[in-house]
Design brief:
0% of the residues lie in helices and 58% in strands. It is built from no helices and eleven strands.
Length: 118
């Protein structure tokens, strides 16, 4: 059974920083792409950033220049460093990983809440 557990969310003032972590556990062979998504109240879930196994990154336009995604393959963990936070960044943040057990499948974490006050 594969599990993803996020941590690092919380309440921060506008202009502040937070670092999210997401660690995968269980039995699997490898992890391909890792990513972060977010869902604000009343809105659809949207892509924040992704990172491939080769280290190539992709960011949504609203977070470019402020957020940085990284990964530690030895720890099966993906990080999201969020700087210069804005109230519109308030959302539940979810990690997603494409993980190979018998086949590659997408797994999601349960989410961590980030609240940015003005």
């Amino acid at each position: 059974q594969v599990q993803l557990v996020e941590s690092g969310g919380g309440l921060v003032q506008a202009g502040g920083s937070l670092r999210l972590s997401c660690a995968a556990s269980g039995r699997f062979f490898s992890i391909n792409t890792m990513g972060w998504y977010r869902q604000a109240p009343g809105k659809q879930r949207e892509l924040v950033a992704t990172i491939t196994s080769a280290g190539s990154t992709n960011y949504a336009d609203p977070v470019k220049g402020r957020f940085t995604i990284s990964r530690d393959n030895a720890k099966n963990t993906v990080y999201l460093q969020m700087n210069s936070l804005k109230p519109e960044d308030t959302a539940n943040y979810y990690c997603k990983m494409r993980i190979a057990t018998t086949v590659y499948m997408d797994y999601w974490g349960t989410g961590t809440l980030v609240t940015v006050s003005s």
